[in-house]
Amino acid sequence: MNRSRAFLMFLLIATALSFRSASAQLTLENAIEATEQTVRFYREDVGVEGGYVYAVSEDLKQREGENRVGPREVWIQPPATPAVGRMYLRNWQLTQLPVFRDAMLETADALIRGQLESGGWGNNIEFDPLLRDRYAYRADHHTEIGKRRNRTTFDDNKSQSCLEFLMLVDRELEFQNELIHQTALSALDAFEKAQYPNGAWPQQYAEFPNPSDSPVMNARFPETWSRTFPRKSYSQFYTLNDNTICDLIELMLTAHAVYEESRWLNCAKRGGDFLLRAQLPEPQPGWAQQYNREMEPAWARKFEPPAITGGESQQVMRTLMTVYDVTGDEKYLKPIPRALEYYRSLELEDGRLARFYEIGTDKPLYFTKDYKLVYRDDEMPTHYAFKVGSKLDRLEREYRRLEDRGASREWNLPLPKAPRMNEGLRTSAQRLIDERDDRGAWVERGELRTFPDSEQSGRLIDTRTYLNNLSKLADFIAAAQNEN
Q1: Which one of 213, 263, 392, 471 has the largest count of C-beta atoms within 10 Å of its C-beta?
Q2: Of the candidates 386, 260, 393, 250, which has an alpha carbon nearest to the alpha carbon of residue 325?
Q3: Summary mean pLDDT of the chain
Q4: Which of 337, 227, 360 minimizes the C-alpha distance to 284?
Q5: CA-to-CA distance for 45 and 48, rounded, in angstroms?
Q6: Does position 334 have pLDDT exceeding 80, yes or no?
Q7: By three-state DSSP, how is residue 324 classified?
Q8: Bond preceding residue 297 cis, omega within 30 of 0
Q9: pLDDT for the residue numbered 135
């Protein structure tokens, strides 16, 4: 063995031994101390009154969600505020550490203060006293809404994730926190009122729909459709895009499990009935991203044409199977075999599915970078997935499994289970503790999307990293507690 190779092996062995030594020194007390420091920093310096954004600059001066946000503004869409709250709840359930319970309750309070008079949540929550008056927050007890922002949005799992978190906290506290309990119930009541008579929900709303404006009918194809973007509002359309209605159905199943009221199960069943109605007729028995009041596929954004979707349709099939599993009603399974057969016929050469297929021809549809609708895929914008992974094999296995065993008639609420202690868990926890800076923050390379290069240092604090790393530390703590 030559000297350089021998030296390399020495370094590898020394590194392994040092990791082994470090992880062996990590105690439960050390891990708890590090966790408390980290949570305190993120609550006091990164977050704002229990709310969070996607990322902040290393010096904490620049903050962003989907857009730039102000110094007292927080964001809703996961991985922001409700996702952080869910992490705190999970870690509290695992470890029973007060630091997680306190943080969980602070985030619940932030969402309570961000609930709109319309019942749900918008894109953001503003805590600056000089700016809050622009919003119709229930907590501020406005005598009239006027021009205040009051639009509840279901887009991108925003309001759904907020309410799900509050309901799970309500259950965890055995329904003893009256403010959390009443906020959750008021949101549920509003979401039920926002459901159309056919079982669908809009992408967003400020006023509850008039039932007479939404006749109950089955999906159909338009006689003609324009290949030119019409620039019309789509917020009131029946929206499957980004799994909006599927998320709401599962939310209502969670509400039924938490509060044990048939009212919420009925909401979920009506949502499932809409998914049945929304299946388009032969010879294209799939689903569209959104439908107009005539139940025809319709334009949304300039890159979302009337079409059969290969994306959201897969979640539709999964949700129908879920509704069957909870209710035992076999009508929710009936569309699955034919839909699976149809979508298999649409798979691309690489095994994926196109996001859009043309009405009448099944040809994959794409957009150029200047947003012209075309059949070719050589010049697509990169901000949107115009091709998606095929999960048809997995969906078929799930369908066969349900056929064989029948419905469970249960909807299981998430309850974390502590892992068993092992050397890998110790090593990982020690590494995560060592990777923090003196403040307790995980700082990493990266750039904020909404700020120019000239204003960036190339280092940031990412909320997704916080969610992942703090959950791993909680896993170690829970495993160590079980050892003692």
Answers
A1: 392
A2: 250
A3: 94
A4: 360
A5: 8
A6: yes
A7: helix
A8: no
A9: 98
Which residues are within 8 A (CB) of 289 and not within 5 positions of it... i.e. 6 or more apart?
239, 240, 241, 297, 300, 304, 307, 309, 311, 312
* Residue 158 parent element (H or E): helix 158-172
Contact 291, 298 (CB under 8 A): yes
Q: What is the residue-wise DSSP string for 243-258? A: GHHHHHHHHHHHHHHH
User: CA 321, CA 124: separation in Å to the nearest integer?
Assistant: 33
Express each pLDDT in 6-58 by its tens digit: 555 555 555 554 444 444 589 999 999 999 999 999 999 999 999 999 999 99
Gap between the Cα atoms of 434 and 1, Å rounded: 35
How many CA atoms are closer than 13 Å to the CA of 424, on its beta-carbon side?
2
Give me the mean pLDDT over the 310-320 stretch.
98
Would you state the structure tokens that stand for residue 120, as one six-digit string? Answer: 């749900």
Residue with tokens 């809409």: 274
Torsion-angle region of 376 (φ positive above 0: left; ψ -120 to 50: alpha; else: beta): beta
Domains of the chain listed by start with CATH number: 1-193+417-484 (no CATH), 211-246+259-410 (1.50.10.20)
The pTM of the full predicted model, rounded to 2 decimals, is 0.93
Task: Work out the average pLDDT over 258-276.
Answer: 98
Residue the block writes with tokens 């690489």: 350
Alpha-carbon dihedral 372, 220, 349, 313, rounded to 10 degrees? 100
Read off the amino acid at residue 441. Answer: A
Q: How much is the pLDDT for 356?
A: 98
Output DSSP code: residue 455: G
Question: How far is the first Cα of the chain from the last one, in angstroms, to the nearest whole number?
Answer: 46
CA 27, CA 362: separation in Å to the nearest integer?
60
